[in-house]
Amino acid sequence: MRITRTGGGHGRRTATLATTVLTASALLLTGCSSDDDSDSSDANGKITLKVADFGQFGYKEAGLFAKYHELHPNITVQEETTANEQDYYPKLLQQLNTGSGLADVTGIEVGRIKEVVDTQSGKFADLSKTINVSDWVSWKEKQATAKDGTVIGAGTDIGPMSLCYRKDLFQKAGLASDREAVAKAVAGGWEDYLKLGEQYKKKAPSGTYFMDSASAMYNAVVSSSSKQYYDTDGKPVYKDSPSVQQGWNLAAEAADKKLTQGLPQFTDAWTAALRKGTVATVACPAWMAAQISVNSGDSFKGKWDISRAPGSTAANWGGSFLAVPKGGKHVKEATELVKWLTAPEQQAAVFKAIGVFPSNKGAYELADVKNAKLPYFSDAPIGQIYAEEAKSIPEAVLGAKDGVIKDTISNQINNMEKRGTKPADAWKAATDSIDKALG
Predict the structure, then answer these.
(1) Are 9 and 109 within 8 A, CB to CB?
(2) pLDDT tens, 318-364?
(3) Number of C-beta neighbours around residue 307 at 10 A
(4) 419 CB contacts (<8 Å, ≥6 apart)?
(5) Cα separation, 180 vs 173, whole angstroms
(6) How many Å apart are CA 343 and CA 135, to the nearest integer?
(7) 2, 41, 43, 83: which has the fewest C-beta neighbours closer than 10 Å?
């Protein structure tokens, strides 16, 4: 998630997370881009491969581009990063439509992959003969596979869900605070999570709230289901989707019972709340830990912990892909770069550098993943927690406008929290806006 992007998946972080025995540090990313279509090779046969992405994919931080140059002295990799995915994606579509300005390798966010597969797959190289799709968690590469079997993207990261919580606030509220006890308390699902919130509220330390945002909980609920906003025929079914209704009803209940501080994630108010220590729990996909640790600061180190997510069905929130446009100057070389960047060893290196969890299953047995712990989160064994969650994530049906639907519903949940909008009125406003957007 690269935090600056919110469309349909997760926000890709602008902060880094060190794993194994890591510390977190903020990295500000600046965007740079080029529309130069000149051939990126010289008379000596040296090649420059351009990689266009957004937010933070972690390759530079993990030293992978420099390492690739050592392995392939004739190839230099140049990364062109756009800070915000919402700026990046329209430009990518324009480049695909005009055939001009495309990089050799381009990143695609999970919230966009269905639309790209359905409308642009013919413009990308087929990676099915280059990568072994069975190396990834089963549902990941299916998201990037067209109806004719063409695989247009190799999976980078995924966002298996957990629950981040302040164990010191739990203790002050009279609740059990070790991670196994917390996991047991919410084992029945997100309904149990709200019951735990009600217990917390009875003795909550002054000025604190059980959760940051009901919309974040809503997204976690929906993300744990295979049926979300669309059916397998590509028809929007969000109005009748059981997971959407469950998530909406739970969000409305959380807002009504004042269990939430009502802070949309990644806003200034949200980061300020983390810094002040007013939030007790956060729905926590793998990449979220970096955001919490960076924004909460050193004073809360060791006061946070991580437990398994509520319920028996795991959820995925986020993830991206690397694709190779057919119109690139060096398709063969770009394809080999994508294969290397998404191999287990490189995905483990990125996880160690910035905390994005691998989608390639082979990385789960590597030491940098398997033995990873977070000192900031009381040495939570995140490698084990996230790998276990990743195994039971259902294969979700994606739709072309997942992001539009999710964001519109989230906005109305925020209105219930902050403005006291009645659930029926908020739902009508959300569906009217979504129907208009979908045409």
Answers:
(1) yes
(2) 899 999 999 889 999 999 999 999 999 999 999 999 889 999 999 99
(3) 25
(4) none
(5) 18
(6) 9
(7) 43
